[in-house]
Amino acid sequence: MLQEMLVPIMEVFGEIAIATTAQRRRSLQGDMKQVVIRAARSIGPPHTRACLLDVTGNSGNRELTCQAGMWAGRQETPRTTFKEGTPRGDRLLRSMDKREPLFVPDLLSEPPEYQPDTQTYKTFIAAPIAPAINHDAFGMLTIDSPVKGDLTDHDIKIIEILGQLLGSALAIKR
User: Fold this and answer.
1) In the Cβ-directed half-sphere of 2, how many Cα atoms lie within 13 Å?
2) Which of 83, 108, 137, 138 is the Cys-Cys partner for 89 at CB 3.0 to 4.6 Å?
3) Where does residue 7 rank: exposed (0-12), middle (13-18), buried (19+ CB within 10 A)?
4) What is the pTM (predicted TM-score) of this model?
5) How many Å is the Cα radius of gyration of the chain?
6) Which range marks the domain in which residue 167 is found?
7) What CATH number should be reported for the domain holding residue 141?
8) What are 5-35's pLDDT values in tens digits?
């Protein structure tokens, strides 16, 4: 499984690194987002869902947003926006700011303010999209499942690595 995930990622990463124009690099960075989302989606059973949440706004008014087409997996469309100043938004942004993954093995055991609006998922992992601790984050990479126990501690590191690889690719500006 690891090889199937990493080979396409590293192929696109290499193309980004040698791209000679900003337009080509931006196009490849968009491709990289899709490749990473598909790799994250391959973790766990077929009913998992992966989503890329882009961060926008300034401190105190930030949002994590899943843009159209930036998710893969089961049919239910993911929640598209998490806003600063709300419990769930603050929790994700705090995790991103600290460059730490967030793993919730059982959402039903979480306080009510962290419960999702719908019952379409019961567990999730979110990891920052950033090339390094001291670099601005681009957002969060998430994976969720409607079945408690589908995601484990082992999956955290994989999502973290995918977030770092994507963050590194997005940081290339040459």
Assistant:
1) 5
2) 83
3) exposed
4) 0.94
5) 15
6) 2-171
7) 3.30.450.40
8) 889 999 999 999 999 999 999 999 999 999 9
